[in-house]
Write a structure and sequence with these properties.
By secondary structure, the protein is α/β, with parallel strands linked by helices. It folds into 2 domains: 2-8 and 131-237, D-Maltodextrin-Binding Protein, domain 2 (3-Layer(aba) Sandwich); 11-128 and 248-282, 3-Layer(aba) Sandwich (D-Maltodextrin-Binding Protein, domain 2). It is built from 10 helices and 13 strands. It has helices spanning 11-18, 64-76, 91-94, 148-152, 156-159, 171-178, 201-209, 219-228, 259-271, 273-282; strands at residues 2-3, 44-49, 52-53, 57-58, 79-84, 110-115, 122-123, 128-137, 164-167, 185-188, 214-218, 233-237, 247-254. Strands 1, 2, 5, 6, 7, 8, 9, 10, 11, 12 and 13 form an 11-stranded mixed β-sheet that branches. Strands 3-4 form a two-stranded antiparallel ribbon. It starts with a strand and ends in a 21-residue tail after the last helix.
């Protein structure tokens, strides 16, 4: 398996659940001092976000998380403010759980996208369920590929010449391993020290340049950058089913102990799935239904 430069995927926020990474810390659970509820008294929705993580968010407000936050703020009658920080290790610590200097107020109060059950935050009901996808250039030899299994039906001499772009610690690794194709993988690390790098580069640069033949990405990222590539690439999503899990649900994250604020956000999500879906589909996010609603987590209630 060959290795390429590091890139940021949906930070370690997505990687934590999608890659089964255990990033839990007792310090972030409700065992510590009671945190003040965010009751919106000052009429401001303070969102924690990545400044360069399209299609999720950027500092120009162009991502689908930006648009969801804008819709929520509008419905609440709140002003929208952001605290931007690259979504990787330390993101929650430096945003949701960090107080403004000389103040008891936290820098921000809501992360729009975290995996359901994420340990570093209390999570709302999910609002997005999607799946991983493969993306490849439109080439005659790929014309018959309409499902991931169709790729495996290519003539062996053709299949075993392909180079597969994957992020480490994702379901694509398991899929390639299960089909004895892992030696053809070009591996990208989930995290990067360069905040200007983004996961869509795998499509926009390496796939276009022919450095890889097929890339495997989280569906919202794959859909957006495949669309940006115009008619030159195709996207084939992995179906949900038994075996290797490719589908995951995304929630919003708040601090532990802030039940009133969490309930307010939960109620908004529950009442606005149609609005949220409309935003997501405009970014070519491959949506799966239903979006299940998880049971409450221990520690969500205020002490």
């Amino acid at each position: 398996m060959r290795h390429k430069r590091s890139m940021s995927v949906h930070a370690t926020l997505i990687a934590a659940a999608l890659c089964c990474a255990a990033l839990a810390s007792a310090a972030v659970k409700a065992d510590g001092p009671t945190l003040p509820n965010n009751d919106g008294a000052d009429g401001v929705l303070r969102v924690c976000a990545d400044p360069n993580n399209m299609p999720l968010s950027n500092n120009k407000g162009e991502g689908y998380e930006n648009r969801i936050a804008s819709q929520m703020a509008s419905d609440f009658g709140y002003k929208l403010e952001y605290t931007y920080f690259p979504q990787r290790m330390g993101f929650v610590r430096h945003t949701l759980r960090e107080k403004e200097e000389g103040s008891d107020r936290f820098r921000c109060d809501l992360i729009i996208g975290v995996p359901k059950g994420y340990d570093l935050t209390s999570t709302t009901q999910p609002y997005l369920r999607s799946t991983y996808a493969m993306v490849f250039q439109k080439r005659p030899e790929f014309a018959s590929i309409n499902t991931p299994d169709d790729l495996l039906k290519l003539p062996p001499e053709q299949l075993h010449k392909l180079r597969f772009g994957i992020f480490s610690q994702t379901p694509a690794v398991d899929w390639l391993l299960s089909h004895d194709l892992i030696d053809q993988a070009v591996s990208y690390r989930v995290q990067s020290g360069d905040p200007q790098e983004y996961p869509g580069q795998m499509i926009e640069q390496d796939l276009r340049a022919g450095k890889v033949d097929v890339v495997f990405l989280w569906g919202p990222i794959a859909g957006y950058f495949a669309k940006r590539s115009g008619d030159t690439v195709r996207l084939v999503p992995f179906p949900a089913g038994p075996g290797i899990r490719f589908d995951y649900t995304i929630s919003m994250g708040v601090r532990y102990g802030e039940k009133a604020w969490k309930d307010k956000v939960d109620q908004w999500i529950g009442a606005n799935h149609d609005k949220i879906d409309s935003i997501l589909t405009s970014y070519q996010v491959p949506l799966l239904k239903p979006v299940d609603v998880p049971a409450p987590k221990a520690g969500d209630a205020s002490p």
